[in-house]
Each structure stands twice: as C-alpha cells, then as structure tokens.
Amino acid sequence: TDIANYNTVTINVNVPTTKATPVVNGASVAAYTYGQALPANTITVTSVVNPNDPTLVLTGGTINWNSIDVFPATGTNAYVATYIPSVSDVANYNPVEFNVNVTVNKATPQVTWPSTSEITYGQTLSQVYLIGSPHAVNTNNNLDVPGTFVWESATTVTPANPATAYKLRFIPTDLVNYYTDSTMINLVINKANPIVNWGDFSTITYGEALSDISITNQSSVNPITGLTVSGSFAWTDSSIEPNVNNSGFVRTFVPVDANNYLTVESPQLPVVVNKANPVLTQTSSPYVITYGQSLPAITATAVNPNNNASVNGNYEWDYPENHQPQAGTALYQVHFIPTGIDAENYNIAHKAFNVQVNKAKPVLVAPTASSLVYEQTLAESLLTGGSAMNANNNDAVAGTFQWTTPTTIPDAGNNAYPVVFIPQDQNNYVNSDPINVVVEVAKKHIDIEIYDLEHIYDGTQKEASFRDAEGNVDLTGIVDAKYYNGNTNVAISTVAPINEGAYKVIATIVPTSNYEGTATAMLVINKNVANMTEPEEQVEIVNAIVPGMNQYFKIRDYEQMMPIKVRMVNANGNQVYQSDNYKNNFDMSNLPIGTYFYAITFTINGTEYNKTGRVEVVGK
User: Fold this and answer.
1) Minimal CA–CA distance to 224: which of 127, 300, 336?
2) Is residue 598 within 8 Å of residue 579, measured between CB atoms?
3) Which residues are within 8 A (CB) of 350 and not within 5 positions of it... i.e. 6 or more apart?
4) 50 phi, psi to nearest 5 deg
5) What whole-number distance in Å separates Cα of residue 509 and Cα of residue 514?
6) Strand ranges for 299-408 from DSSP E
7) Residue 605: C-alpha distances to residues 526, 531, 579, 580 (Å)
8) CB–CB of 586/566 below 8 Å?
9) What digits encode the pLDDT tens for the residues 155-202?
C-alpha cells in the first residue's frame, strides 16, 4: 500500500484449479415429425458460459444428442444432449449434459391407395372391393404404418353416376403418432338393369294399334334394392296394328335416370287381338232394279271400323239366286265373307242393303183399231189383239190397251194415235210407253150454210160467213170461198168483192180438212152508211151469237160510225157489258144462253144516233 516507498513486485504462484463445467443457456430444437430420429434436427443454444463468471462465454465446441437412434414420441419431452468444449477450451471446461425439450408432431403416412372393383348402381360403398396392395409408410423412417382403409359412410351411401368420386380413408392403428388420411376414389358404377314387370294387357280389335291397348300393373324396380325405378314404357312402334294371329311385340322401358339405369327391351309380348266386324256401306243407295230382275250385283265397301282400311272379301245376298223382289223400296239382307289374309282378321259381316225395285214397263205388240167417221172420238175405236210382256223375264203381262186421249177426234185419213197398255198388276207394273196405232177415219159430210150476205159499201172487201147448217161444226178456216160477178162463173179479181153489187159465192170445204161439202149463195154490197137516210134502222147488228162460229157482238160497218157507245143487259136488266169506244170486240160466247138487250149510240157525219135491240146467245 506504501507505494511511495515500495516498488511493485511480480511473482509466480502455483494455484491448484479444477475444470469448470459450462452452463448451457437457451437450448432449443426445431419440432419433429413422428419417425424422425433425434439427430434429424440441430440443437441451438443462446450461450455457453462459465458457471463462475457468466461473462466468460465459450465459443465453438460441439453439441450432440446422447441417443442418436431414438425416435422421440409424439408430444413434448426432454431429451439429453452433451456440450463438448472446443479444443481451445477443453483444458478448462468439462463436457456438460443438458436437457432439451423436444416437440414431436404426428406424422401423416404416405398412403398407397388401392384400386376398386366395379359395382352396379344400387350397391353401397361397403360392397366395393379394394384391389391391389394398399398400405401406408412413414416417410421419415420408411416403416410401415399399420392401419385400415374404410369408406366414409360405407353402408349408407349408394354411389351413383355421374358423381363417381367417393372418399376413402386410411385410419392408422397408432392414432397417437399418426394422422388419418383420405382421398377421393373414382368408382366405376355400372348401370343397373331394372327388373321390369311388363303388366297386364287389355284385348284389342283388329285395326286398333298397339297404342290402343290398356296396360295395368306394369312396374320396374332396382334389382339390388327393390326400389321403384321411374321411367316410361313404350312399344317399339306403337302405331303397329297387329294381326289376330301375331307372335307378340316388343316394349321398352326407358328410365328417367339414364345415368344409372339401362333401357330394358322386352321379349316378344303376346297381344290378344279379336277379329273385327267390317262396316258395310252401299256405294249407291238404294240399288235400283226393275221388277222382273233378280237382285243386283252388290257394289259396296267394307272397311275396318277402327282405321277405315278396306277389307277384301265377297258379298252375297241371303236369298236364292233367282229371287225377284216385288216393286217398292225395302231392305234385303247381305253377308260379307272376308277373303285372303283378311279372313284371319275379320268376322263375316251382315247388313241390310236398301233396294229400290221400280215398276216394270211392259213391252208391247200393238193392237188393231176399228175404223171411224170424223167427229167420232178415239174411244169409239175398238182395240183388239196385241200383247204385253216383261222384258226382264219374258213373262206375259195381263192388262188392257187404251187410247191415251180417248176424247180426241182424229182427223180424216189413216193416222197414228198413241195407245197405252194398263197392266192389271199395278203394284209391279207401270203403264206402258205410248205406241202409235193407225186409225182409218172417213171424212164427214157438212151442209154449209152461207150467211152474212148483205153489206154496205165502205171501200173494203166484204166476205160472206159460213157455218154448219146443223150448228155442229165451226167452219172457220176450213171453207174455201170463191166470188163471181153476179150469177156468172166469172171470178172477181179480188179475194172478196169491194164494190156495191151482187156476187155469187161458192163455198167448198178445203180438200185437207176432215169434212166435205159445198154450197152456193148471193152476196150483196149496199151503199155507204153516209148515204143512209135512216141510220137507226139501216145499221146492221148481229142478232144471234153461236159460240165457236159467230161469237162477237158485231155492228156492220162500225168503222164508219165511231165512236160507238154500247151498253148491254141480260133479261133481268143486269148490265153485262159497257164500252164508250166499241170496236166489235165483245166476245159473247162465254155468256149464258139467253136473250140480251143492247143500246148503242153511234155517229154518222157528225150526227149522233141511238139504236136499241136484242141479241140471242144460242148453243153450238
């Protein structure tokens, strides 16, 4: 301490010491996966220091696990390691053991997954076979990892297309040190072939299609689960119209779930087809024949009642071949016999067809007519001889010949007139067509009465009038009149005389008429009315009306006295006619026979005159 008086002296002293045991701080190691050995990871420390002086930090040196073959268990556990000082420190420090906390995680095995068997839709995952050598290993130590392969929900899941991937799990036996693993396995799921009950078929009639069959109790089920399979049933061709004798037809079942079910085709399924009854129709109704003919050839159509297809076959009447039906319209029975292939598919059909039997018209051989004299009617000519027959069967037809117009008065000469035959059997015959029968008719002699022989000159031709003296024949148009000057045979130059004077009239029945006869008379033409001194007395007015001969109320030379007023009454004083401008146009032939009284007013040379009188309407 007395450094003022003393020097510091250095001396060597031998100090006995022992090696120090270092202190290892902050030892740690990275986490392990089960199966790794301890040397797999390197231990790290924060520092290694002198136990007496922490400031003395050792550098270098090595750290080793005490057990190099140990596979640490899962979890966190302490394992022993040794720190060996470096060469430079080994003289002063001892190796030191220390604990290191080791964390070991579960290992995920490396799995070799199996292949699988094919299954059919309806089987569950539990029915899938695992094929191959599935196993698992610990990739850290290449040791096998015992365990089992199981499907997720193996007994409840039914694999189905199109989602074919399903989870297969590997479950290690050692669940302490290993995780389970899983993967999606694509399965081959074969479509199931449904079990089909094709049902019960109703019967149909030929001509109906397969689509017309009513089907009950048809079903389809999964062959594995027995569950109903939804889908549709159909004939391969539902439009087919099967024959009565058929070998069956194929149906198909098409599932809705086409991913998991096959379409099923049936074998030939028997179909019961009854024969059809053809529908018969006359092509023309009614058939028309004539009495005496047999029933006609049948023209008709036979068709299937279901599809209107024509049916081949033969028609026959249900009557003897020579049956001749009575006249009238009636129904006659027909049967239709199918032929060829149609005989297999159709029944014999019966139908009543409408037949109209017209009355027959007899064919005639003309009778002979007795002769007549003109004005006799045909009814007075007797018809004798002649015959009638049915042209269809040559049967004789009873009846009589009659004139068609028995009241006809035939012209003179040999002329033909119609005759008809009236059959006794009016039910089956009509009267014949008229045939002409010649009648010989002689001309009738007529006594011609010539009248209207007095006239007044007016510059026009004046003609006589002619009538049958017996009043039976209207001679209008059938008398040829010739006029001669005076009583000579010198003919006048005009058709009738014009000038005042007397003229001979010779009237002859024209050669073409039905009458013969001639007569002669004298016609006188008086002076003109203007020269009359007493017109009321001199005016000539018809005093007799004969229908068909002299029908009109006539005033001689009325043209010179116009206008003429006429009023006429009957015997009772009732007016039957009146005119203020009369022109000889009152036809009295339609008035009743009797006496009629007239009053006329006429004008001559500006002077008006009155005249009264009577006129008789007589018969023919």
Assistant:
1) 127
2) no
3) 318, 333, 334, 335, 336
4) -70, 135
5) 9
6) 300-303, 313-317, 328-338, 349-358, 363-365, 368-369, 372-373, 383-384, 387-389, 399-403
7) 18, 10, 21, 18
8) yes
9) 888 999 988 899 999 999 999 999 999 999 999 999 999 999 999 999
For the entire predicted model, the pTM comes to 0.52
Q: In the numeric block, which tokens belong to residue 367? A: 């009778």
| pLDDT, tens only, 231-278 | 999 999 999 999 999 999 999 999 999 999 999 999 999 999 999 999
Amino acid at 559: E
Backbone phi, then psi, for 535, in 5-degree steps? -55, -40
What is d(CA 462, CA 464) in angstroms, rounded to the nearest whole number?
7
Whole-angstrom Cα distance, residue 392 to residue 429? 12
DSSP 3-state assignment of 227? coil
Residue type, 8: T
Euclidean distance between CA atoms 43 and 100, whole angstroms = 8
3-state secondary structure 445-478: ECCEEEECCEEECCCCCCCCEEEECCCCCCCCCC
Residue 620 pLDDT class (50, 70, 90 cuts) = low
Residues 98-152 pLDDT 10s: 999 999 999 999 999 999 999 999 999 999 999 989 999 999 999 999 999 999 8
In which residue are the tokens 């009642």 written? 305
**How far is Cα 335 from Cα 316, in angstroms, rounded to an integer?**
6
The pLDDT value given to residue 296? 93
Q: Report all structural domains of the chain as residue ranges with CATH numbers, in order of start.
A: 23-105 (no CATH), 110-190 (2.60.40), 195-274 (no CATH), 279-358 (2.60.40), 363-442 (no CATH), 532-620 (2.60.40.1220)
pLDDT at position 528, please? Answer: 80
Helix/strand/coil for 38: helix
Structure-token pair, residue 583? 């022109």
CA distance 185 to 183: 6
CA distance 579 to 598: 12
% of the chain with per-residue pLDDT over 70 = 100
Residues 6+ apart with CB under 8 A from 379: 403, 406, 407
